[in-house]
Amino acid sequence: MKKMECDVAVVAAGLSGLAASIAAAEEGLRVITLEKSKVTGGAASMGMGPLAIGTRHQANVGYNLTPDDAFLKHMHWSHWMVDARLVYDYYRKSASTIEWLEDMGVEFVYRNTTLYTPSRMRSYAEPERTCHAVKPADGGRLGPRVAARMTKAMTERAVELGVNILTETPGKKLIMEDGRIAGVLAAAADGEELEVRAGAVILATGGFGDNPEMIKEFTGLTWGKDLFSFRIPGNVGDGIKMAWEVGAAHGDIRLDLMYQIPDNTNHFNLEGAFRQPMLWVNKLGERFMPEDCLANTCTTGNAINRQPGHTCFAIMDTALLKHYKKRGIDIFGIQGPDVFDHFDEEAGQALETGYPYFVKADTIEELCEKAGIDLPGLRATLEQYNADCDNGGFDSVFNKDRQFMRPIRKGPFYSLQSFPGAYGSFGGIKINYKTEAVNEDGYPIKGLYAVGTDACDIYGDTYPFILGGNTMAFCLNSGRMAAENAAAYLRSLG
Ligand SMILES: Cc1cc2nc3c(=O)[nH]c(=O)nc-3n(C[C@H](O)[C@H](O)[C@H](O)COP(=O)(O)OP(=O)(O)OC[C@H]3O[C@@H](n4cnc5c(N)ncnc54)[C@H](O)[C@@H]3O)c2cc1C
After folding, report:
1. What DSSP state is assigned to residue 1?
2. Amino acid 459: pLDDT
3. Residue 410 in contact with residue 382, Cβ under 8 Å?
4. What is the pLDDT of residue 115?
5. Mean pLDDT for the stretch of residues 377-382
6. Regarding the domain with residue range 2-253+427-493, which homologous superfamily does it belong to in the CATH classification?
7. CA dist., res. 218 & res. 209, Å (int)
8. How far is the CA of 303 from the centre of ligand 1 (A)?
9. CATH architecture, range 258-421
10. Measured distance CA(380)–CA(388) in Å, rounded
């Protein structure tokens, strides 16, 4: 068995693990970071950027939300079912974390795009302007994956500070001695067992979004049947299980729920084309929400999740397709404004390859049969919906904005089926406001810290788009907090 020694061992080099590693090294601690995959960065490499409150970017545009304001909004959102002190400390730290990242060379683009979107169609009716997107490389478009530049800069900073990042080296088991953490066992890249002796261990393994069994156990959803979520390879709940093994209590466990179509990356524009306020029905053919409110992917995910079969269908007819091709989209999503320019190509591809979630049909009967929608139910819905459209556009079911009341009459008809999705999981290891893993009685397991997704149960039942950029920000700030608290703990040991 190989043996190594350090002050702090960080298990994983995703976003929270990198933050913890850098902050621990800045405290003057010797840090070894164990990373399961070949590369660092984890899920964060797919996103846009973190929340912060009270930054100079916000001050520059006269936006003055305070951490206290955000804290109260957050606590009302979560119905005070979460750790208030952890949330408060996190928001107070968030602005300094942006400066900390900027000192590493990360650049941010701070924009207030929500002001140009009608309130009912925003991700949240009254969103705060908290997200700081990472600036794309020269000429790049602001969108998914820009945050990879942040994790790259963080990795470089960690290396510069002397953090020993061991890739392809998964952490396996915590070492406890005399009632406190003494290190972690890992599998080295060459397969040999590795013992890393450390006074403190910070777990940051990114949750269990890639573990269908844990997803089934804790949410009841079956991946590939009624859940089509992102699966970041290797995020299978290792850190959570390691902490539970040494007596950490279970935190609240959920999915970072949203909605999506299966295999969405291969049908990217098709998905964007249907994420519009057209007619949306469940398997019974019934409407279940005003379609102009579906821009918030998380709350729409909740709505879809409670439908029969956890699924729904967006439907348009030829006239509506023609309208969208000519006039463009109503709701702007991550897919961008030009999704209908790609409609024929992607629809043709989906039909050719037999993608079962997209249907083109000459009649409503054929549509229902192919898609699996109840025909009498859809017929009744269409009768009402089309009559409402003819009647000045007053939506008698949900009062959807009348500008989106467009009848569905003229074949061919098209439908696309959506399901709950998720960015990943939330929570697992119960922590206190110092990010220490705690036992059932609330006492810390000495020397053990958990950060990021492994410990993130601060939202209640739904991710708060009201304060966007929240998951990355929690990862960054909890990582920093854990490192600072671990340093204080190690100093207290003398
Ligand atoms: C498509 C997408 C877009 C997103 N966009 C945003 C956004 O714009 N803003 C936002 O706030 N949030 C966003 N998120 C969420 C955010 O990216 C995540 O919440 C965050 O990256 C999670 O950080 P983490 O450190 O907990 O886990 P990760 O960054 O996923 O890191 C986990 C790491 O643990 C490693 N690992 C696993 N097991 C072990 C082990 N046993 N030993 C060692 N290493 C291990 C993995 O290889 C991985 O590197 C997005 C997520 C997705 C999927």
Report:
1. -
2. 97
3. no
4. 47
5. 98
6. FAD/NAD(P)-binding domain (3.50.50.60)
7. 11
8. 25
9. Alpha-Beta Complex (3.90)
10. 12
